[in-house]
Amino acid sequence: MATAIDAAHVTYEAPDLEVAEKFLTAFGMTRVAGSDDHTLYMRGTGTQHHIHVTRKADRQRFVGASIEVATHDDLVELAALPGSSPVRRSTEPGGGDEVVMTMPDGIEIRAIHGRAKAEPITGRAPFVPNNIRDKNRVNATVRVATAPATIARLGHFVLHVRNHDESMAWLTDRFNFLPSDYFLPPGQDGPVVGTFVRLDLGEQLVDHHFLLVLESDWVGVHHSAFEVTDMDAVMSSHDYLLREGYTPDVGVGRHLLGSQVFDYWKDPFGFRIEHYTDGDVVDANHRPGRFNGTASETTQWGSRPPLEFFA
User: Fold this and answer.
1) pLDDT digit string (tens) for 133-185?
2) Which residues of 90-129 are buried (b: 16+ CB within 10 A; e: fewer)?
3) b or e along 199-215 (b: 16 or more beta carbons within 10 Å of the residue's beta carbon)?
4) Does the reported pTM lie above 0.85?
5) By the 8 A CB rule, do 261 and 234 touch?
6) What is the pLDDT of residues 267-307, one digit of tens each?
7) Phi/psi at 193 (nearest 5 deg)?
């Protein structure tokens, strides 16, 4: 089994790369050298060379996701599995090696290793909060402009699949994924129809979820999610995107599963995309829970998704 260490990027297709770049820039990403009239590469402030790819096509489509693995040997192991490509050089900016695989429903998963790292982009430091007990911000103020958020990284993505168990078996045969929480049908004790998975990196802290696999009557991406500096970044970016005329979806609120403060938007092609901050981190000792509430009950406070949000 390969050791996944990071979500590298998500890949989409869309008919207008100029429209895509304008939105993603407003959302908080930066264009990467190597973009051209056929493919747009966007990065965050972290070290991943790029975190979002849009290929020009006649119609919009989610292609899949790329996962960084720990070693070249991980690629060799994945390449030996049925349906995998050989290990090959990536043609994307940043280079490195890759293995291309296809999930049972046709979603492309690429494992990558050896891609060039980006120099981090310096942004503002997170604001230090003062709460009822701890007064850590002394002789200092909070001043934040209405402006694009500073996106650091791709945090997770959510896939709709036709058969949850088949897709989970495919993923866990290939990667070091552990369950963090299970979705059950509302009001029922089973079966499991969704699983939040995280990386198994032992005692190293990882995000509560790297991926959610959710059984559905349609196949594709529910959303991709990008981590920003802090709650002020979420809120100020919300105001900025409204001012720029973009379409809010659900937010701002705080999730139950993973605890993130979230803000969902729709990009110009109808794909859901999320800003988030302040999510739970866990290690390999975390044990999964079971959730059988409605979509609106996945929010603790704030904007609640409609009942059909995950349908």
Assistant:
1) 999 999 999 999 999 999 999 999 999 999 999 999 999 999 999 999 999 99
2) bebbbebbbbbbebebebebbbbbbbeebeeeebeeebee
3) bbbeeeebbbbbbbbbb
4) yes
5) yes
6) 999 999 999 999 999 999 999 999 999 999 999 999 999 98
7) -115, -5
- Pair of tokens at residue 70: 């720990």
Please tell me the total number of residues recorded for the chain in this structure: 311
Tracing tokens 């981090």 back to the chain, one arrives at: 120
Take residue 103 and report the two structure tokens written for it.
């999930």
